[in-house]
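Supplementary Note 3. Input sequence used for the single-chain structure prediction.
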Amino acid sequence: MPVKSRFTRLDAFTKTVEDARVRTTSGGVVTIASLLIVFFLVWGEWSDYRRIVVHPELVVDKGRGERMEIHLNISFPRIPCELLTLDVMDVSGEQQTGVKHGIQKVQLAPAIQGGMPMDVKALELHGDEQASHLDPSYCGECYGPPAPASASKPGCCQTCEEVREAYAAVSWAFGKGEGVEQCEREHYSEKLEAQRDQGCRIEGGFRVNKVIGNFHIAPGRSFSNGMMHVHDLNNYLDPSQGSHTFSHTIHHLRFGPQLPDDLTKRVGGKTMGWTNHHLNPLDNTDQSTDDPAFNYMYFVKVVSTSYYPLGWKSKGVPGDVTPDYVSIGKHGFGSDGSLETHQYSVTSHKRSLKGGTDSQEGHKERLHAIGGIPGVFFSYDISPMKVINREERPKTLTGFLTGVCAVIGGTLTVAAAIDRAFYEGATRIKKLHQR
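The predicted structure, written as C-alpha cells, is reproduced below.
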C-alpha cells in the first residue's frame, strides 16, 4: 500500500470540494469580527504573561546577629538643639549616648517667626576655634571630675565641651557653666540664652542591633547613675530659659531603607497593594503640649521584610548581612539585587509626669504615675516572623501558548456556530418567501 494512503485514513480534518462551498456576506462580517476578537484576546494574554506580580510569603525569621538602620526626621519647635540628646539602648546591654554620627541637628527660628531653618554655623555653641588661641602649655581645670578620655590634651579640659563631658562621666549636673573658666571664655551661657526661643529639627539615621530596644530624644546630657539612665534637666527646667516643651512633629520615621521610586512605580499600581504595606504610619504625626513635664511614648512592632526582584537568585552579599563599614543609608541593599527593609505598626501613649487622670479626655478612671523623664520615647520590638516578597510572572510560557490556542480555537468555534445560524436562518426565510 502506498505511503500516502496510510496517512489518508488518519486525516481528521476532512475537506469539501470548492464547488460545495458557499460564501455569504454575513460570513465575511463574522470572519472579520472574529479576527478582531482573536487579536484583542491574544493581546490580553500577552499582557498578562508580561505582567509582574509580587507574591508575599510569611516565614520564620531565622536571621542572627543582624543590624538595622533607623531613619528619622523630627521637629521640636519649642526646644533648642543644645538641650536635645538622642540616646539608644537595647536588651543586649549596648548603649549609644548622645548619638551624633549620622545625625544632624538643624536650628529652627522661633515658632512666632515661622520656625524656618536657620544658619547653623551662626549660633554654634562649640566652634572649632575655641582652643586654637590657647597657650600650648595651658591645661584647663576640670573642676572636680577627671578629664574625659576624648580630651584634646590628656588630663586637661581645654574647652567648655570637655568640662561638660567630664561632668557627665561622673553623673554630675552641669547647668550653664557659671564659674567655669572655659565656658565663660567661650560665652557658653550667652549663646545658650540666644537659643532660648529657638526650635530644633533632628534628622538622619543610625544603626542598632536587631533586638528589642528603644531610642529617645530627651533634654540635657545623659549618664548612668547606678542601674538608672538619667538626664541633666537643669537647663531644661530653668524658668529663666523660657517655657520649653516637647511638642513635636514626626515628618518621617522608618526602619531600614526606603523602597526605590522605580520599584514603587513598577509594582505600585492599582492591583499592586503591596507597596501600601510600606507606608510609615508615624509619618506626619503632630503632637502638641504646653506642659514642660510631659512624656510621649511610641510602641513599635517591627516586621522584617525582604524584596527579591524577578529572576532573583542568591549571589553576592545579601542585604541582611551588609557589613557595618557600609555608610548610613546603604544598609539593606544587597549586591544580588535584593532589598532588606522593615515594616512596622505602632501604638502611642502620652502622660504628664505630674501624674493625674485623663479626665479632660473623658477617662477619669485612668491614673498616671508621677515622675519620669520628659521627652519622646520609641520602644521597638522585633517580630519573629518575616515577610518575603518575590517578583513573579503570573503565567509561564507554556501557559501563555495554551491560552492563545484556547482563544483562537474557542473564538473560531463560536464564530462558526454564529455563521451557521445566520446562514440557516437566511435560507429558511428565503424558502418561506418563495412559497
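The chain is about 25% helix and 30% strand. The mean pLDDT is 80.
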